[in-house]
Write a structure and sequence with these properties.
This protein has 51 residues and is an all-alpha fold. It has helices spanning 6-9, 25-40.
């Protein structure tokens, strides 16, 4: 889970009406694109060297 505020964005979160048609799939795709870009942008050589 990237955030813990799903219940704020979807009033159906984890109840009987929490179905695929109540999800904002475009938003979900944009979140995953951001996560993937963030992970791919990590570079261990930059870690703590202060340069």
């Amino acid at each position: 889970m990237v955030t813990d505020t799903s219940f704020c964005r979807n009033p159906n979160y984890h109840i009987y009406s929490d179905t695929i048609d109540t999800l904002d799939l475009g938003f979900m795709a944009r979140v995953w694109e951001g996560v993937i870009r963030g992970v791919l942008g990590l570079d261990a050589s930059d870690e703590g060297n202060g340069e």
